[in-house]
Fold this protein.
Amino acid sequence: SFLPGCGESFDDAYNAFRSPKNSAPAVSIQDTSGWQTSPVTVIGSATDSDNDSLSCRWSEITSYGLTFTAPDSFSTGIAFTGNANGDVAVNAVIRLTVSDGEDESYHDMNLQIYRNDVIFVTPDGTGSGNHPESPLQGGHAADLAYAISYAKDSGKTIVALSAGTYEISTTPASPALILKEGISLYGGYASSDWKR
């Protein structure tokens, strides 16, 4: 039995005596820093000090059009296939929300993700072109022609050109630039984050 203390209502005293307050779950997401090729698997977790049954939900905070293969599972695949802006790579923010049936908690994470069907090209690139931080050189006509052929031969569908100057031959012996069927050539990207 119990008696309310001075200045305490009967309901307040009863609720304090009846049961402890529910604790919200603690949420975390496994780190995936650096650029990730789409699709990427992301793993989250949660603990609940009350040992309540937990449910979860993945969502995108930014508006780049990411899709989740298992939005109600702690492990999900996330895909980026482009958007209306023509972005080939984005710095997205994803959220894992976890509920114990009474309270919710969430954890946000930055996710750098890029399309897997793109060859990245800058005028002065020195890399393979398969990764945003390793662009292929494309400053000269032969370089651009190579990038287009390389994209076709490696099953890619897009050659993304960062902003800059690209030389194209205009002599009759060397045609300006020959595009290949099934390959799109997009330009105007910032080479720092591959956004337009």
The helical segments are 10-18, 141-153. The radius of gyration is 26 Å. Residues 141-153 form the longest helix (13 residues).
